[in-house]
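Protocol step 4 of 5: obtain the predicted structure for the target chain.
Materials: sequence only (see below). No template structures provided, no constraints applied. The aim of this step is simply to have a reference model before the mutagenesis design in step 5. Sequence pasted as it appears in the construct record:
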Amino acid sequence: MSTFDVSIKELHPMNIISFHGFGTEPEGIALSAMFEWAAKYQYFQLKNTRCFGFNNPDPTPGSNNYGYEVWLVIPDGMTVEDKPVQQIAGGLYAVANCHGTVEEAGLFIPSTWKKLVEWMENSSYQMGKHQWFEEHLSFPGLTLPEMNAQGKLNLDLYLPIQK
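Step 4 output (structure tokens):
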């Protein structure tokens, strides 16, 4: 029997900019806009960069359309003039990793979310009310743009929890 690794992480408030996509494949729309902006400002060459995403709005029965929002964390000292900077609250999270190809994402991402929720339901934690999301991570030796070009995904899923 395989184990399901979950870690508990606390995120502090972060300054972010966001990109949004809506349609049958909104992740691609939002990520394309984000990667275009990031290339223009050499974002992924900076230190302490992070990329988060989540459905916004969630899929609804009877429609193939939904939204996806991507956040880039603005590192200390970076000035952004062409997009509004927002501060998001941090919080306590149960975190699990999943990875694979973009083609497999429809299988491994939902199954990992399901396992993470089941883990929370059998833990001493309750569901938190703060934002859930997926952190897009790079593999060693690759940047996020390179991973995107190769169709690879490495995600930490952040489920909001509270005691």
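Step 4 remarks: The two ends are 29 Å apart (CA to CA). The longest strand covers residues 91-101.
Proceed to step 5.
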